[in-house]
């Protein structure tokens, strides 16, 4: 028996450009398998699609290898962070405190 086909979107935003594509996959396809089938690796060979974090509509999917994609969902491929946001805030606060101490 042939599984029904559903349409989903896959999106990736690199530093210099972004790609949004519609992909047809068999019903029951996992999030990771859908991304691998999308062909986005051809456009961004530097991506490690087997391990990169994935999300659906802005929410990280904890286990994309087992989460089944639903029709109409948008899978987002996330880039690694260049700097930890908590560390950046901590450094900014320390710099502000240092500047305030110098002005007293």
From TrEMBL:
Similarity comment: family membership: Belongs to the UPF0125 (RnfH) family.
Organism: Pseudomonas rustica
Pfam families noted in UniProt: Ub-RnfH (PF03658)
Domain of life per record: Bacteria
SUPFAM superfamilies: MoaD/ThiS (SSF54285)
Name of the protein in question: UPF0125 protein KFS80_04880
């Amino acid at each position: 028996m042939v599984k029904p086909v559903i349409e989903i979107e896959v999106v990736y935003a690199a530093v210099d450009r972004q790609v949004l594509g519609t992909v047809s996959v068999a019903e029951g396809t996992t999030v990771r398998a859908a991304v691998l089938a999308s062909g986005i690796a051809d456009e961004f060979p530097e991506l490690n699609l087997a391990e990169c974090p994935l999300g659906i509509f802005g929410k990280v999917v904890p286990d994309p290898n087992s989460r089944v994609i639903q029709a109409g969902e948008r899978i987002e491929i996330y880039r690694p962070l260049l700097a930890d946001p908590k560390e950046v805030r901590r450094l900014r606060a320390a710099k502000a405190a240092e500047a305030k101490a110098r002005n007293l």
